[in-house]
Design brief:
The complex is a heterodimer.
Chain A (H helix, E strand, L loop, with lengths): L1 H9 L6 H10 L1 E5 L4 E3 L7 E7 L2 E7 L2 E8 L4 E2 L2 H6 L6 E4 L3 E7 H10 L1 H27 L2 H11 L1 H6 L2 H7 L4 H22 L1
Antiparallel strand pairs in A: 1-8, 2-7, 3-6, 3-8, 4-5, 4-7
Helix pairs in contact in A: 4-5
Chain B lengths: L2 H13 L6 H7 L3 E6 L4 E3 L7 E7 L2 E7 L2 E8 L4 E2 L2 H6 L6 E4 L3 E7 H10 L3 H25 L2 H11 L3 H4 L2 H7 L4 H13 L1
Antiparallel strand pairs in B: 1-8, 2-7, 3-6, 3-8, 4-5, 4-7
Helix pairs in contact in B: 8-9
């Protein structure tokens, strides 16, 4: 399990054994059932979760409708990030989709680590930058591509999520109406079929 | 305005991100550049790698992307705002977005290489860098949430209430694109708002 975290962190910088150990000492391993809320609207987010196993989503309510803005799987971070960074009450709910195991780091422990290990402060800046760029990338996708293109791009990049995540969640995340999503799904099946036949 | 005054502005803007003493700021100054652009100048072209992180000191910078349906405005940065082609700057890849001035503009900029150098040599730079990114992250998250949560009318009214001067500074077509409102709808909403 630590290997997964080490791999994630190594895309930013390489930590010494000592630094990784210090980080692991501050981390708690938590396991949740499916559909458990880790953060609710109005909570102040104190925790940052790294998913070791499972799936979680982040969403807010527009009237009665859930609007999903993140679906995170193994090897990804999730928390109510704006609340975590700003200290303001969360506008989002963070909830597991599957039974999920996470490495959890509390905010105050993270700040404690900065003081001891300057490299962790750098790591933290690089991770936040990456999260920001992902957000930027996601918004550009939404602007540059139409519904059908976004659907196909997402599905080809995340075929595993199509199997694991309820369709209405994916539709919400992609900002596509459920009916449209169902219709587009056929496109995917046809595409797969034609790929299969072409390899023969 | 003189260089000194522009630097004072830069210092004031940076202090919003973290507590920064004037002497710390003075250590940062050699890494910064003041850059001046005429209005309607392309600062970053599509396909070009963006080398700068900028804070607007005077003027207005528009960030937009070309799509099949035309230009879509993503950001309208005025005094105090941070603007750049973020993905291009950090990943060192060609930019998908275009930065263009709408007015005569002065920005305080840090070049990518200078930023790396500052991060290595100035003890407070990591914290400042982190704090700027966190700030940008929060702003982007909140505006995306608004985009999904609010109706066209709500977005229009809120934007013009919070940024009343923008109607004078920005062509209506561009404002409409920024707010993701059809130009016709924008005109209609404007007339309704004026009547009140």
């Amino acid at each position: 399990m630590v290997a997964l975290l080490r791999k994630y962190l190594s895309q930013f910088l390489v930590l010494s054994d000592e630094e990784l150990e210090a980080l692991m000492n501050e981390i708690e391993v938590r396991s949740y059932d499916k559909k458990v809320r880790l953060t609710d609207i109005g909570d102040v987010e104190e925790n940052l979760h790294f998913i070791v196993k499972g799936l979680a989503r982040k969403y807010f309510y527009k009237g009665k409708e859930e609007v999903i803005t993140q679906i995170a799987k193994e090897g990804e971070l999730i928390c109510s990030s704006v609340s975590f960074f700003s200290g303001n009450p969360s506008g989002y709910i963070v909830e597991t989709i599957e039974p999920t195991t996470v490495y959890t780091l509390q905010k105050e422990r993270l700040e404690h680590l900065y003081r001891q290990f300057p490299k962790l402060e750098k790591l933290s800046r690089l991770i936040i930058t990456e999260l920001f760029l992902q957000k930027e990338y996601w918004e550009l996708e939404r602007i540059r591509y139409n519904t059908k293109e976004r659907f196909l791009r997402f599905m080809s990049e995340n075929p595993d999520l199509f199997q694991r995540v309820p369709q209405k969640y994916l539709a919400s995340y992609l900002n596509i109406k459920p009916e449209t999503f169902s219709r587009l799904k056929h496109l995917l099946r046809n595409k797969r079929g034609s790929e299969k036949s072409s390899t023969r | 305005m003189e260089t000194r005054a522009y630097l004072d502005h830069t210092y004031a803007y940076l202090k919003r991100f973290m507590e920064l003493s004037r002497s710390d700021f003075d250590m940062l100054v050699p890494f910064l550049e003041l850059r001046t652009f005429d209005k309607k100048t392309i600062m970053v072209q599509q396909g070009e790698v963006d080398n700068y992180l900028n804070i607007v000191l005077k003027g207005l910078v528009r960030k937009y992307v070309r799509t099949q349906k035309g230009e879509v405005t993503i950001q309208l940065a005025t005094e105090g705002h941070v603007v750049q082609s973020e993905i291009s700057f950090h990943k060192r890849i060609p930019s998908d977005v275009i930065l263009e001035t709408l007015e005569n503009t002065v920005v305080a900029s840090i070049h990518y290489e200078n930023m790396q150098q500052a991060l290595q040599t100035l003890p407070f730079a990591e914290a400042l860098g982190r704090s700027i990114v966190v700030h940008m992250f929060i702003k982007r998250d909140l505006s995306y949430m608004d985009q999904l949560k609010m109706t066209t009318r709500e977005r229009f009214l809120r934007y013009l209430t919070n940024h009343p001067h923008m109607l004078q500074r920005v062509p209506q077509k561009i404002l409409a694109s920024y707010l993701n409102i059809k130009p016709e709808t924008f005109s209609r909403l404007k007339h309704l708002a004026m009547k009140k």
